[in-house]
Amino acid sequence: MARAARLSGFPEWLPSDRIVEERVIDLLKHVFELNGFGAIHTRAMEPISALAKEGEIDKEVFAVSRLHGEQHDAKNPLGLHFDLTVPFARYVVEHAGHLAFPFKRYQIQPVWRGERPQDGRFREFIQADIDVVGEDSLPDHFEVEVPLVMAAAFDALRELGVPPVRILANDRRLIEGFARGAGLDDIPAVLRSIDKLDKIGEDAVARLLAEQAGADTRQQELCLALARIESPDAGFADEVVALGVSHPLLDEGLASLTRILEAAHRRAPGTVWAQLKIARGLDYYTGAVYETQLVGHEDLGSVASGGRYDALASNGKRTYPGVGMSVGVSRLMSRLVGADRMVAASRPVPTAVLVSVTDEDRRDESDRVAEVLRARGIPTDVAPAAAKFGKQIRYADRRGIPFVWFVDGETGHEVKDIRSGEQQTADPEVWAPAAEDLWPRVERVSAE
Amino acid sequence: MARAARLSGFPEWLPSDRIVEERVIDLLKHVFELNGFGAIHTRAMEPISALAKEGEIDKEVFAVSRLHGEQHDAKNPLGLHFDLTVPFARYVVEHAGHLAFPFKRYQIQPVWRGERPQDGRFREFIQADIDVVGEDSLPDHFEVEVPLVMAAAFDALRELGVPPVRILANDRRLIEGFARGAGLDDIPAVLRSIDKLDKIGEDAVARLLAEQAGADTRQQELCLALARIESPDAGFADEVVALGVSHPLLDEGLASLTRILEAAHRRAPGTVWAQLKIARGLDYYTGAVYETQLVGHEDLGSVASGGRYDALASNGKRTYPGVGMSVGVSRLMSRLVGADRMVAASRPVPTAVLVSVTDEDRRDESDRVAEVLRARGIPTDVAPAAAKFGKQIRYADRRGIPFVWFVDGETGHEVKDIRSGEQQTADPEVWAPAAEDLWPRVERVSAE
Hints:
Two copies of one chain form a homodimer. Chain A has 448 residues and is an alpha+beta fold. Helices cover 36% and strands 23% of the residues of chain A. The first copy, chain A, folds into two domains: 2-41 and 100-345, Bira Bifunctional Protein, Domain 2 (BirA Bifunctional Protein, domain 2); 353-444, Anticodon-binding domain (Rossmann fold). The first copy, chain A, contains 14 helices and 21 strands. In chain A, helix 12 (363-375) links the parallel strand 16 and strand 17. In chain A, helix 1 (15-34) packs antiparallel against helix 4. The radius of gyration of chain A is 27 Å and the shape is elongated. The two termini of chain A are 17 Å apart. The interface between A and B is large, with 89 and 89 residues. Strand 5 (62-66) of chain A pairs antiparallel with strand 3 (62-66) of chain B, so a sheet runs across the interface.
């Protein structure tokens, strides 16, 4: 069961739900590694000067200082990273001489934002990022590969009872070129306005476009018409063309997004949709942008987002263009184990077998049985006290441990499945639980 | 290869060494879970009031504040946790109604200390903790179980080339009872002095005992004589008794440590030693204390420490006594992959197979082969560009990827082991690499 932590915005799970979270993370890692992404882990802190670069983000940063700091600390103040992209960019520049490009990495760590907590939004949360970064250039096909790897990762999560996803793609150049072609110049204002569409609706976006981007009625309608376009394949392009706007950057974006949709449609039909209202808040994207909906849970917001960036990382001499996506693991968890629980672990402990203790003086016998079972890969606990067997069985029952082992030098060993009550003689060198009982299972909770 | 990060005290590893670290963590987790410890993950921040409780530790705490914080933030300032025990204690009290006691948990996360960085000491480092916590009481046998689980965990690490360990045990009551029996009352001063023995030597400790604990010559000599005692079994007790000091608390400590050494000696001879100079810095231990030496690397300091605490966690009505140990994962890593590298990954990427691309127009064919291999659990990458095959083979070679796959619709598929140069026809539905090539291996680096 999930419990609200006393510090708002800092989710912590009970042990049974941490099993769910670990399983989610393990499956993501496995798919990322199958696709050639290697793990890195970066420090939690970066210079605030590096974190604050991204315009408005600085208000969300947690600053860090030593309680009894020395003078020199103040010269280079540090903050906690608010995503894994900025530290990754720094890591790439710092270690470039020791990396082989294109460099494919994944990274699963907490990040921190000083935002007001709300449903699915936290002050500390775990992200799982994949990025491919090139040195000076990066082939376009990675803009197909990254969302398809992410789709494969979510596909792996379905065995846990996670709903299917739909990845939504757009291209920054497409929006920018369209806006410029329609006669609008304040592109950040256009992006910010369209980005609010799901939250505030078309009328309010039209007003924002007027107020902040100086759009007249025709321009507002063109932008809204663009934002309404979506398709499960490359069909979106004809609809854009039909709007009658033209600009070289629009052509570039259209061609690129078409390529992505065609390749995705060939390789994994129905997985990636073009949805032209996707804008993404962060400044650094320069090509494809992605969001990911959990089908049936669109209200949760995107569970995996990202895009192409051409100039995030640079050391002055070389640039490191990249494309990546980031899973909001904590956001996903908040839905999986939240108020309307969808997924649960079959027990809150790893333990499959509890070895009972007949007498404290004979604890060694129980410990020896446990050692044999563990050496054979069976997670085993020994009863904490030589209480009456009924109490030892209740100890197992409270924890969902399916088997209780009885040690007796005279009559030999017996093991009881406390769910069925079935008890049988057993040899610790040979007996094993059914495969599905060996470790906790993580499964969809059936609807009631 | 390890590289010094530009921010001193914040270790970051290159991808090949992160493979080592992940393998270390995976093996620790596996052994902890085999022994019935479940995972939890706590937030990185605690109220500074909770972190500063432990006397002198407050100077090491990193305080956290929102860059553009609001008034109410200042009322309850937060800091980054400096260990995993304090957050665990808070977690236990906060969630007690939802936990089953004795509660066995492990926790592997970074911790932060504002200390001056030095060899094996960092400002951000990963710890791996196990603790058993009872409600109001905790059976003594867990003081044997915890160091033996830790010994089993280090034993599992030996397959990676990690040297064997020796766990050193003492008991706080033994030292305190001995000091009181010898007529000394300022126990914290005695503990602090003895704790410095390895760093400053006997003469300096004698002076400290005189200056800070008011010890006369006889008392100094008694303390040093006690601190010299060590044994691989319960033999230490006779040596202590021979010193002629008596006190009820000393008897209690002697009996308890004897019980631990006897049980450990029966279950895993030679693993746990009594070493009576072990004092531990932190205030909260009340019984057994442990340190762990990497044999042949004693200069590194303890790689796993802990002890018994009776009153760390309490909600006023109930107390939660516990016993635990904490592995310094980053400290261990600093030796394994540091200047005198002991351990290395066989390649810096997960990938076992690189599928080459004959022509960009035929990239789909290569992608399809890769999908088939991945679906069969084989980590596979596709060449980033349809360059000359020599260049694609060098791409694999630079990353240590052992196999390159050639796709040809006419002549069929071939796979080349680029280490031997051997090339053979292959079916992606059937072919598999040798088991030892499937994932990167982590192995001892042979001495040169």
